[in-house]
Amino acid sequence: MTKNRLEAFSDGVLAVIITIMVLEMKPPQGASLAALRPVTPIFLSYVLSFVFIAIYWNNHHHLLHAVERVNGATLWANLHLLFWLSLVPFTTAWMGDDHFASCPVALYGIVLLLAAIAYYILVRTLLALHGKASTLAISIGSDRKGKISIAIYVPAIPLAFVRPWISWICFIAVAIIWLVPDRRIESRISRQDA
Amino acid sequence: MTKNRLEAFSDGVLAVIITIMVLEMKPPQGASLAALRPVTPIFLSYVLSFVFIAIYWNNHHHLLHAVERVNGATLWANLHLLFWLSLVPFTTAWMGDDHFASCPVALYGIVLLLAAIAYYILVRTLLALHGKASTLAISIGSDRKGKISIAIYVPAIPLAFVRPWISWICFIAVAIIWLVPDRRIESRISRQDA
Amino acid sequence: MTKNRLEAFSDGVLAVIITIMVLEMKPPQGASLAALRPVTPIFLSYVLSFVFIAIYWNNHHHLLHAVERVNGATLWANLHLLFWLSLVPFTTAWMGDDHFASCPVALYGIVLLLAAIAYYILVRTLLALHGKASTLAISIGSDRKGKISIAIYVPAIPLAFVRPWISWICFIAVAIIWLVPDRRIESRISRQDA
Amino acid sequence: MTKNRLEAFSDGVLAVIITIMVLEMKPPQGASLAALRPVTPIFLSYVLSFVFIAIYWNNHHHLLHAVERVNGATLWANLHLLFWLSLVPFTTAWMGDDHFASCPVALYGIVLLLAAIAYYILVRTLLALHGKASTLAISIGSDRKGKISIAIYVPAIPLAFVRPWISWICFIAVAIIWLVPDRRIESRISRQDA
């Protein structure tokens, strides 16, 4: 039951985050195709953020699927993750408004990095609760994707001051790593369900 | 369980989309009836979009009712659908602000078309998972309504540059097609439940 | 299951409506107590609307508690109700911005009236599905409160053009009628549960 | 079931509140680090409010975990709590916009105080329903934290007119009191579950 409500609240917060970001895309002045031009960077930022929030929802979902119980520490580790994700609409709007200038792109990367660290802490908290022999521990394994993501975010932040598009390539690289489905967990779960 | 969470997240996103659209209807300047005049096109756009999101919620609900399991591909096909629907508040606001000019109406149609294609992909993904002999496959049948909708959206987009109201007639036609209840699925399900 | 998802979606929409209304209360210019003055009518409108949405959530909850099944007509009757309620943030904002001028107050009343009628239709649709001998039919009885509300809203709308505060007294009267708990349904249900 | 829907609606409202607050953090004008400076007080206010809403969600969750049934009075006591919490985005925005001036900080404290009183009423309503020998009554005990919070809020409000940062220290003190996990309830529940 506790786990269900944790999922329900997280789903609610993620659903609101992913949807209110679109409010930052103000309808353009004028009705011509050209009027859409200044909206383009905001739209691209929106797409990237939508994909990231969607990845977090997906991972969160897979993670909690394998979880058997939660405690107070888990609730706060989860809220900590939601805190950083709740800042994504703000960093997305700034990055889009300023056509991918260095500072906003770096801040976007910092928030993604802090969210990745928060996710890592959530995973560790759950592992501490379930023990090394649990389905959860086996499914997560060495959590390579999580570690690689952090390893990519760290250089992506200073690189925004060299060329912001290099940071963007880093962000897209992380997204692609996660979009390739994590066969291990799924196969492990379906094997166990069988 | 996985299916429940997919439904819960989709419900959350659709509930937020359908509700935040109303934020684009800014309270008019002045307290007279005449002050409501400029709000009228925004209100009409809102009604149309409310009906479309409601139809998607309804169809999504019926579709998942017949679904037995979901996998990673389903989750992403569903998120892809939610992405296009999340753009509806933006296109609705632009269309309303510019009193049904050609470009905004065409963009509105494009987003509806892409959402319809995303829904089609979601249905295919679920069918691939359940097989041709499943309740799902039998309930969906030839998916005539889905195909007709796409066939109406495609000409509706260029027609916005001839006369925007012709596109509106197309959109309303699609809405009416879906509002007529899909007796087949309901009867099939209730027969099976019995 | 279908009923659960109807409840979940309605809860989502009502939760968003009740919460985004507060976004219309813009933080005042200046940091003095006097700066709060112009916010007062917006705050009072917000309180009234919060109470009305809360009443609808409560009634909706009690209504569906006694419901055994839903069909396509129910889903649309429910969406119709949510449509009128989704306009409440708009009418609330207009009424608050214009310090209770006649037109905004009348429009506020019209939306409440249409929501009340939509609720009445939802009740009828559910009764038609469950039959006269059902727990639902017995719990609802003659639906006196629903009918009285409509009877109060109808004169409240034109009275806004005489004195807007008369309409407000009508709205508050309806709210009080509903806030007095409907002992009949609760006692009926708890008796049946026993 | 009634309890589930109470939880679902509360989760929805709290999820929206916690997320829309970020909309008050408007993307800064300009793309330099210096442009972030004026956003700092808004960000700090956001962090404080996020923590408070998170604490309420957590407490609400623990409270309802031990609850066995709810009635009409509970539903309204819960809505009363949600009402005061729904004002948090407004007071947060005003406090942030005006760089922690006396009036906004005092109003922020007033809303927190009223929310704390509303939570106290909710607890009393649930206790009245469950009786002194219930798991709920034993878990809550003397509700020391609730009483201490109120005792801190009361002086914090006038102190905002002496030095606003003294009020902030009070608010942070309350947050820390709650962040220290309430071992009693958790241990009581897990003992009972065992």
Give an account of the 3D structure.
4 copies of one chain form a homotetramer. With 194 residues, the first copy, chain A, is an all-alpha fold. Chain A has one domain (2-193). Chain A contains 9 helices and no strands. In chain A, helix 2 packs parallel to helix 8. The first copy, chain A, is globular and about 60 Å long. The model of chain A has no long low-confidence stretch (mean pLDDT 88). Chains in contact: A-B, A-C, A-D, B-C, C-D.
Secondary-structure blueprint of this entry?
4 copies of one chain form a homotetramer.
Chain A: H1 2-20, H2 40-65, H3 72-86, H4 88-97, H5 102-130, H6 135-140, H7 144-159, H8 164-179, H9 183-193
Helix pairs in contact in A: 1-2, 1-3, 2-4, 2-8, 3-5, 4-5, 5-7, 5-8, 7-8
